[in-house]
Amino acid sequence: MSLDGGPRRTERNRAMGVTKYHRITLDTFHYKWSRFHKPVLSVKDGDTVTFEINDVGSWQLNKDSTHADVMTYDPAKGYPLAGPVSIEGAKPGDALLVEVVEVDIADFGWSFIQPGFGLLDEFRKPFLYKWNLENKKSASFENGIEVPLRPFCGVLGVAPRTRGFTEVAPPGRHGGNMDIRHLTAGSWVKIPVWVDGALFSTGDVHAAMGDGEVCGTAIECAGSATIRFGIEKEAGLGFPQFFTKGDKKPERGYFTATGIGPDLMKATKDSVRNMLGYLTKTYGLTAEEAYVLCSVTADVRVHEIVDRPNWVVGTMISRDIFPH
Amino acid sequence: MSLDGGPRRTERNRAMGVTKYHRITLDTFHYKWSRFHKPVLSVKDGDTVTFEINDVGSWQLNKDSTHADVMTYDPAKGYPLAGPVSIEGAKPGDALLVEVVEVDIADFGWSFIQPGFGLLDEFRKPFLYKWNLENKKSASFENGIEVPLRPFCGVLGVAPRTRGFTEVAPPGRHGGNMDIRHLTAGSWVKIPVWVDGALFSTGDVHAAMGDGEVCGTAIECAGSATIRFGIEKEAGLGFPQFFTKGDKKPERGYFTATGIGPDLMKATKDSVRNMLGYLTKTYGLTAEEAYVLCSVTADVRVHEIVDRPNWVVGTMISRDIFPH
C-alpha cells in the first residue's frame, strides 16, 4: 500500500494499531448500485472487512439444476452484492484502495451458456456445467482436464456518480463488475471515488476464470472475501488500476492500468493512456519514453468481453523491470 | 512436433536422418509478399534453415540517427524479408509447421514514435530511442529501468493466395507480420498454406516487445533465426495457431489460437472459434464444453494493435491443464 508514495494515513493508522476488523454476513446484501443505498457499515481508512458473498445467481442454480434451468434463470436476481460499506473520509476525486487479503470459495460452482449471452452468437442451446470445488486447488473437468482454481471477486466497486439505481452487470469508472481474474489474494486495486464515503460493495465470486470470460460465466460460486481499505486523496484517477503480487517477491508481480467502455479499440487506448499517466508520474519518464516502454514490455489483455455494453481492457507491466 | 497427432512424415524423416541444414545470408532478401517470388531455396519437410535477417528499416536507422531521422524514414524500405523458401510437398489446404529453434539479435536496436503511426494519435513529435543490446539478456532504459530481452521474429509467413504483390505490414491468414511476442526459441506456429511450396519468409527481428506493440515499434534490430519446417496435410486451418515452450517442461507452456482482422471484436470471436476447433478435435470435447473451458481458463490477449488495418488477437490456454 505504500507503493508510489501512496496513502500515508493508512500506513500510520496501521502502525498505530487503530485499525479494526469487521464482518458482513450472508443475509446482508443489495441489488444494483446506488448512492442512495444506506451503508451497512462505516469503517475507517485502514480497517479490514470480511464480506460473506452469495453466488451471482442468488441460489437459482444448485447441485440439482439441469440444462433446462438455464432458460428460466432470472437476471433480475443476479448480482447480490455484499455491502455497501462507507469508508470515512473518502471523497469524490479520491481513489479507494482495495487490498484483497483473502478469497474463499464454497464447495460447489457452476458455469452456463445462455443463448444470446456470451461472446459467440452461434450457441443456441442452454448448457449447464456443475463443478466440484471441494479440493480448493483445482476442479476436474471432462476427459482428464483439470482446471486450477484462483478465486477472486468479479465485482469490486463503489457507488457511481449517477442518481437512481444502476445495473451491476456493466463495469465502469466506478469499477464494479470488472471481472478481472488477476484480483486474487495479495492483489490490490485503486477505484475512483464518486460519492462521499465511496459506498463499496463486492460480489460475484469466481473460483476460476480466463481473461475474457468468453462464454459469459466463470466458475460461479458463493464464498467470502476479506478486504482492507485505504484512501488516496485527490488521486485524479480516470479508470481503475491494480497491482498483483509477485510469485517470489510480493512487491513485484504486475501493475495494470485499465480502460473500460463499449469499444474495444477505445478501451485499449484508454488503458494505455492510464498506464502512461502512471509511468510518467511514478518513474519520472517523459510521455514518449513511457509510450516506448509500454510498446517493448507491457501486455494488452482483454479482462472481460461479455459484460455488455462495457468491456475491460488492461495494459499490464511487470514490476520486475523497475529499480524500486 | 508430434503433438496432437501431427506430421508423421516429418518425424519419420528426422528419425531416418535425412533432414538437411541450410543457410540464407543477409544479402538475400525481398520486399512484399508474392506467389511470384522465385524461391531462393527449396527444402524438404523436416529440414532446418538459418535465416540471416536485416532490421525492419533496411539500415535507415543506426547508432548515429536522431529524432529528426524518424520523419524521413521511408516505409517503402520497410520489411526486407529473408526468403522465400519453398517447402516440397506443401499444398494449399495444408498447414506449414514452423518450429523456432533459435533467434539471435545484433548489438544495436531502435524504437521510434512516428506521428500518425501507432495506437495513440496524440503523439505528434518524432521520437527515436536507441538500445544497447550487447548483454543479450536485458537492455537498460531510463531511470534504472531494465527491459528483459526475449527475441522473436515479427514476420513469419507464407505467400498469400492473392496474385500480384502484397504489403508486408498487415498480417493475415498467411501469417506474416503477426508480431506475436510469444514466438521465441522453442515455440512453433502452424500457418495455413495458400500456394504450392508455401513460400515461407521471415523478418522484422524484435529483441523485446509487449503484447500490442502499442507505439508501433518494438526493439527493432537485425539478427538471425533458425527454423525447422514440417507439413500437416489438409489441416483445414483458418487462422494461425501456436505453441510455446513451458518453463519447466518443454511440452507444456501455452497453446494459442489466433484471430486476425480489422475489427477487434470479430478477431476475438475468430480467435475463440479457432480455439474451440482445436479443443473439440484434440481433446474430444463438445463445442459447449470447449466454450466453457475457454471461459474458465483461457486468456484473450491482443498480440498487436498497430499493423493497420489488421490486428492479431490470441486466445491462450495453459497446456498444464491437459492430461497429455
What can you see in these coordinates?
Two copies of one chain form a homodimer. By secondary structure, chain A is mostly beta strands. Chain A has two domains: 8-243, Jelly Rolls (Sandwich), CATH 2.60.120.580; 254-321, Endonuclease I-creI (Roll). The first copy, chain A, contains three helices and 18 strands. The first copy, chain A, has helices at 8-15, 264-283, 287-297; strands at residues 21-24, 41-43, 48-53, 82-87, 95-105, 108-113, 127-132, 138-140, 146-148, 152-158, 175-176, 188-192, 200-206, 223-232, 241-243, 254-261, 299-304, 311-318. In chain A, strands 1-3-14-5-12-15-16-18-17 form a nine-stranded mixed beta sheet. In chain A, strands 2-4-13-10-11 form a five-stranded mixed beta sheet, with no helix packed on it. The first copy, chain A, has a two-stranded antiparallel sheet with strand order 6-7. In chain A, strand 17 and strand 18 form a beta hairpin. In chain A, helix 2 packs across helix 3 (287-297). Chain A starts with 7 loop residues before the first helix and ends in a 6-residue tail after the last strand. At the A-B interface, strand 9, helix 2, helix 3, strand 17 and strand 18 of A face strand 9, helix 2, helix 3, strand 17 and strand 18 of B.
